[in-house]
């Protein structure tokens, strides 16, 4: 392929590279970015995007990549899905903004009603709109505090809930995310998440109670220890939990973990907040990850895949909880009509075909990753639901010592072969492609991972 070749992104399905990476145009932009953009951003490799369609990305030098990250699990319907683009263009022609905080427009109740119908649980619900996952988490926390008149919170190690000051208090993922920002804004007690591969208590599902009615130790400790020592139950507003932990390593808990949290919360009048920012909106093959576990939270925070790339977040809560007075919580840009138009189109696509494709293709990809595990000793665990799949790398399967540097090298090796992936946790590869991918693209990704793992371990 020559430099002046026009790539047909509408039909392209697999990578095609023709320059060293980064290419000359990409390098210029990386250099300019280094000069003018905040250094707090995290970039694993120099991908400089020009265009995208479906699961394909073209960079500024004309190289073509297969995207298995989807803008960090955001582009659920793929890059620039024509139906989403059409909905956006139509809304832009009508009007772009007026602020749902102060005025009415049909978009707000339309999407709120749809999300209320889709969210787990039979109770009536209401929705508050913001602009991001962190804003959704902030709103969920405020609602829990408002309705309980309590201030203390319980979260989990490994969790990522955002970087704004309230959400940062809940985030327990990486020390560098907190470093330099002083005392935390909220009173949060963290406990270990139900990571059965790396149990903080050196137990197994068979010995911890996960397979019994009493529930796993990591959930029971909330009542058996935390509520008896450092968090008086009548001062605890909420337990906030990711039904599947995202940044912490794509960790899938046993259903009994979530059920036990629900039981403890109900006993003490504590709200349960499900952070579905990454796992929600079809990512796991269900509209919400909570559905896999028959788990019904009081409040849901969601964002990322909700609008196929436009900024939108939502707090979904039982109607009897969302009764705060006018002015208690609002957002100038939250529920922007263009973002809502994109969201309604996204949900239509999810319900029409993409949820099923996610479930079926996700199982195919998960099986393929487990086959890779048979060939590569560096893979310690493979887990996931739908197209939310984690591959945890270890130096030794017996000691389970994390292979963090090797994970980072695998990311770069994949990039240089045309596959876009990203890490999470200490040493986990996350696969979160657009929900439009097919088996041919899965096969390419699996071959590329196989090659990258071989290159790193030999």
Between the first and last Cα atoms, what is the distance in angstroms? 32 Å
The CATH class name of the largest domain reads: Alpha Beta
Give the full name of the CATH homologous superfamily of the largest domain: Type I PLP-dependent aspartate aminotransferase-like (Major domain)
CATH architecture group name of the largest domain:
3-Layer(aba) Sandwich
What's the overall average pLDDT, rounded?
96
Biggest sheet, strands in spatial order? 4-10-9-8-7-5-6
Q: Would you tell me which CATH topology of the largest domain applies?
A: Aspartate Aminotransferase, domain 2
The major pleated sheet works out as: 7 strands, mixed
Structural class, judged by helices and strands? alpha/beta
Oligomer type: single chain
State the domain count.
2
Q: Strand portion, in percent?
A: 15-25%
């Amino acid at each position: 392929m020559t430099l002046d070749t026009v790539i047909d992104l509408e039909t392209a399905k697999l990578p095609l590279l023709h320059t060293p990476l980064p290419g000359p145009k990409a390098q210029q932009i990386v250099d300019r970015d280094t000069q003018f953009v905040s250094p707090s951003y995290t970039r694993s490799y120099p991908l400089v995007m020009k265009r995208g369609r479906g699961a394909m990305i073209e960079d500024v030098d004309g190289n073509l990549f297969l995207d298995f990250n989807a803008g960090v699990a955001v582009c659920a319907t793929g890059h620039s899905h024509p139906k989403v683009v059409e909905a956006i263009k139509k809304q832009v022609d009508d009007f772009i903004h007026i602020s749902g905080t102060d005025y009415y427009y049909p978009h707000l109740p339309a999407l709120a009603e749809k999300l209320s119908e889709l969210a787990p649980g039979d109770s009536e619900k209401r929705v508050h709109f913001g602009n991001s996952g962190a804003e959704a988490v902030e709103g969920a926390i405020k609602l829990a505090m408002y309705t309980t008149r309590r201030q203390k919170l319980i979260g989990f190690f490994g969790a990522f809930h955002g970087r704004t000051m309230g959400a940062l208090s809940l985030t327990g993922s990486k020390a560098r995310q907190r470093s330099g920002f002083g005392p935390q804004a909220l009173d949060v007690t963290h406990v270990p998440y139900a990571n059965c591969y790396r149990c903080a208590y050196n137990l197994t599902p068979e010995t911890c109670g996960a397979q019994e009615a009493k529930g796993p130790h990591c959930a029971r400790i909330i009542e058996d220890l935390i509520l008896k020592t450092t968090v008086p139950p009548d001062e605890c507003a909420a337990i906030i939990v990711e039904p599947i932990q995202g940044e912490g390593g794509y960790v899938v808990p046993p259903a009994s973990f979530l059920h036990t949290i629900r039981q403890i919360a109900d006993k003490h009048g504590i709200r349960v907040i499900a952070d579905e920012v990454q796992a929600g909106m079809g990512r796991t093959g269900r509209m919400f990850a909570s559905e896999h576990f028959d788990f019904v939270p009081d409040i849901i925070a969601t964002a990322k895949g909700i609008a196929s790339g436009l900024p939108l977040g939502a707090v979904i809560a039982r109607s009897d909880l969302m009764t705060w007075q006018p002015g208690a919580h609002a957002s100038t840009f939250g529920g922007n009509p263009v973002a809502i138009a994109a969201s309604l189109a996204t949900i239509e696509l999810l319900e029409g075909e993409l949820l099923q494709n996610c479930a079926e293709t996700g199982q195919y990809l998960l099986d393929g990753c487990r086959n890779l595990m048979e060939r590569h000793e560096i893979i310690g665990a493979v887990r996931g639901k739908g197209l939310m799949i984690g591959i945890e790398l270890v130096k030794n399967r017996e000691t389970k010592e994390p292979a963090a540097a090797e994970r980072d090298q695998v990311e770069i090796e994949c990039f240089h072969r045309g596959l876009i992936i990203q890490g999470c946790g200490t040493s986990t590869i996350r696969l979160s492609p657009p929900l439009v991918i097919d088996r041919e693209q899965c096969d390419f990704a699996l071959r590329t991972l196989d090659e990258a793992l071989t290159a790193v371990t030999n």
